[in-house]
Secreted protein (Chitinimonas viridis), 114 residues
Amino acid sequence: MLKITLPRTAIAVAAITLAAITAQAASEWYFYVQNNTKTKIVKLQVSETKKDWGDFDIGSGIGPGKKERMEWDESTDTEGCDQWIRAKFADGSYSEPSKFNFCKNLDDPIEFDD
């Protein structure tokens, strides 16, 4: 009986450990966005080239005065650190694209101002 229980326990522990490692890797790359404008941010986009833009899932948006944490999707793991970012606002306007190194100073927010 012990021989059957031990391998199942070991497999369960290994599965839980792997899940924890995967969860950490998925949230390893992140950044913060601070909306200092009077208009809600409804879309965040990033690009390595300023030609092809990828969208972040920001849910219902980032309200005026709010700070939110954004996490990179695993599909971006092969992309470079230097990326352009822009915001689309509820009034349809876009911010000017700004270039950031997303591998440094992860806790310093990217600020969008009026």
